[in-house]
Amino acid sequence: MTLANGRHYLAIPGPSVMPDRVLQAMHRAAPNIYRGEMPDMVHTIVPDLKAVAKTKHHVAMYISNGHGVWEAALVNCFSRGDKVLVLSTGRFGTGWGDMAARLGIETQVLDFGYTSDVDLNRLEEALAADTDKQIKGVLMVQVDTSTSVKNNVLGVREALDAADHPALLLCDNIASLGCDEFRMDDWGVDVMVTGCQKGLMTPPGMSFVYFNDRANAARDKADLVTPYWDWQMRIDPDYFYEYFFGTAPTHHLYGLRVALDMIVHEEGIEAVWNRHKVLAEAVWAALEVWGQAGPVRPNIAERDKRSHAVTLANFGPGNGLKLRNWMEQSYGVTLGIPLEGVESADDFLRIGHMGHVNGQMVLGVLAGLQAGMTALQIPHGPTGLEAAMKVIAEAT
Ligand SMILES: *Cc1c(COP(=O)(O)O)cnc(C)c1O
After folding, report:
1. What is the DSSP letter of 197?
2. Residue 347: per-residue pLDDT
3. Atom of ligand 1 nearest to the CA of 144
4. Which atom of ligand 1 sits closest to the CA of residue 92?
5. pLDDT value at position 239?
6. What is the reported pLDDT for 240?
7. What is the pLDDT of residue 343?
8. Is 119 exposed, middle or buried (0-12, 13-18, 19+ CB in 10 A)?
9. If DSSP codes are grouped into helix, strand and coil, which group holds residue 6?
10. Which ligand 1 atom is nearest residue 207's CA?
11. Which terminus, N or C, of the chain has the lesser number of Cβ atoms within 10 Å?
12. Which among 105, 185, 176 has a CA at the least distance from the CA of 138?
């Protein structure tokens, strides 16, 4: 028999769970895009987007997914033949670097594999070896969703400063903005890219490039910049139409407005980070206890290097696939698949705990995993769920 026939829960690392209020805000007739409520509302979105990233600088909005703003960031910063240093800690770091190479940017890749964060010593060596400062930019990912590693963004900035290196620091926060702590200005990030369908709890379709004046100066020299992806007009509040280089994504904006109300004005960004932290710790506690008497282990060994938004875990040979199927078909929860690059992919699954997620949802997923392991006879420490409950009890 199956117990999956209630309200299904998609617990993958994006698109994330969207609040009903966000969806309801989008369910309306088309607004006038030239005057009145819609352009007025867009102007209120810009400061709240900045608040989420802890920045006073600029944010350009695009009708695109995350891959679109990877390209937008690159073309505004670089020229053909420029060199960038790519810090790869999984599929997404590698993917952004590959895109740079296809644009004609020379890439030097530091590959840290699928189970580690950026090794700052190796970064320091690479910067020190660049004596004539040929590296124009460093590309990194705060949370690589494929491995669930969290990188030390401030550490990368400090390495650049210690080497007195002028390269721009570009950071992909598509999985982490609105989940993991991030302070664009304090951490010296020059360019940050993110999308709306993960921590920002809005349907896929809008993405953002944040940049400071140093990056904006680079744009004046970048020969890759094209009219549509140029970030210049997209930051000019006098031209509503230009914000989007054409028709605005009207309904996404209604949804995003509500999501930002919830994150910035109701819960508060620090509380949002904290909620994600506690829920992530509940997931880790369960995994660690299950692993005491079975093959279960989180992909990233050290807690302070784990994402608060997503967890990749190994459940033993073939068990990731079996458990995912059981969760979906027998229990009503869809978990994330491992992405390309993960070895023995059938051993793994990913748990999304990003966005509009609370205690009962995460405990429900963990209870399902524990029940599934029992049903499938996967050995595990029997009190994983209790360990997760204890985390939640103590945090509240
Ligand atoms: C989801 C994700 C992307 C890709 O975003 P799309 O909207 O699917 O194009 C890039 N980087 C990271 C870290 C992500 O999590």
Report:
1. S
2. 97
3. 13
4. 11
5. 61
6. 64
7. 86
8. middle
9. coil
10. 7
11. N
12. 105
CB-CB contact of 327 with 372 (8 Å): yes
Which ligand 1 atom lies nearest to the CA of residue 13?
15
For residues 339 and 100, give the distance between their C-alpha atoms in angstroms, rounded to a whole number.
21
Which residues, in sequence order, are CB contacts of 27 under 8 Å at separation 6+? Answer: none
Substitution candidate for ligand 1 out of 142, 174, 194, 197 with most atoms within 8 A of CB: 174
Nearest CA to ligand 1 atom 6: 66
Q: Which pLDDT score, from 0 to 100, does residue 223 have?
A: 97
CATH: 3.40.190.10, 3.90.1150.10, 3.40.50.1820, 1.10.1040.10. Which one for 9-16+268-395? 3.90.1150.10
Residues in contact with ligand 1 (CB, 6 Å cut-off): 14, 65-67, 92, 141, 144-145, 172, 174-175, 195, 204
Integer angstrom CA distances of residue 177 from 125, 198, 266: 29, 8, 17
**pLDDT at residue 317, rounded to an integer:** 97
Q: Which of 88, 89, 92 to mutate to test the pocket of ligand 1 (most atoms within 8 A of CB)?
A: 92
DSSP state of 306: B
Rounded to the nearest angstrom, the distance between the alpha carbon of 377 and the centre of ligand 1 is 35
* Residue with CA at minimum distance from ligand 1 atom 12: 174
Output the CA 290–ligand 1 centroid distance in Å. 30
Q: What is the pLDDT of residue 342?
A: 86
pLDDT of residue 207: 98
Q: Where are the domains of the chain?
A: 9-16+268-395, 31-266
The Å distance, Cα 131 to ligand 1 centre, comes to 33
Name the strand (E) or helix (H) holding 206: strand 206-211
Fold type of domain 31-266: Aspartate Aminotransferase; domain 2 (3.40.640)
CA-based nearest residue to 366, from 285, 277, 276, 273: 285
List per-block mean pLDDT (blocks of 10 residues) for the chain, which spans 396 residues.
Answer: 97 97 97 90 95 98 98 98 98 97 98 97 98 98 98 98 98 98 98 98 98 98 96 80 88 98 98 98 98 98 98 98 98 94 93 98 98 98 98 97
